[in-house]
Amino acid sequence: MHKIILASQSPRRKQLMEAAELTFNIIIADVDETNPPGMPGKEVPEYLAKKKAAAIEQQVHNAIIIAADTIVLLDDEILGKPKDEADAISILTKLSGRKHEVITGVCMQRGDKQICFSTTTEVYFRSLTTEQIKHYVVNYQPYDKAGAYAIQEWIGMIGIEKIDGDYYNVMGLPIGEIIPLLMEEFTY
To answer: Among 31, 45, 75, 111, which lies 20 to 30 A Cα-Cα from 53?
Structure first.
């Protein structure tokens, strides 16, 4: 059995890997997370996941690397992690009453073998009041979350009308797609 390396500092990705009962270590990929100018938003997560996997591949040998990057895309605009409280409120105000896409790019690699893919989930937000948005930002401080929210927190319960796609993808890792690949392609 090969060792698994999760190339992420995301507590949500760690939680999902643990819930899937995978044994793994975490090594954080120190890469520049800017994307080339003109790259379509839908391609950015997989591009960044590949960069992270490549950075870790240089450090470890014969391990299965799982690298991921998640973005929130609203009308072709990438809504990243908020810089501060005002930015988080602004982002959530943009998402209020609208549909957006959560796209996670995943790159799994062991040696020369590399499998990369993206998973997209459509998320439909109800119209949120200014008070609801401020309550969430002040109490949950979503500064480390793309799109300034976490589906599994209070805002997801009161603000999300429905999703079309993988719930765990919105949390940051399409674990249901990763497990079969681990077993079939990497014989974990």
So the answer is: 75
Which one of the listed residues 30, 32, 69, 84 is annotated catalytic?
Answer: 69
Q: What is the pTM of this model?
A: 0.94
Mean pLDDT (the chain, rounded)? 95
Distance, in Å, from the CA atom of 125 to the CA atom of 95, rounded to the nearest integer, reads: 7
Q: What type of residue sits at position 176? A: G
Please tell me whether residue 139 adopts helix, strand or coil conformation. Answer: helix
Count of structural domains within the chain:
1
Q: Are the C-beta atoms of residues 105 and 116 closer than 8 Å to each other?
A: yes
User: 148: which DSSP letter?
Assistant: G
Active site residue 69: yes
67 token code pair: 């690298």
Residue 72 sits in which domain range? 3-184
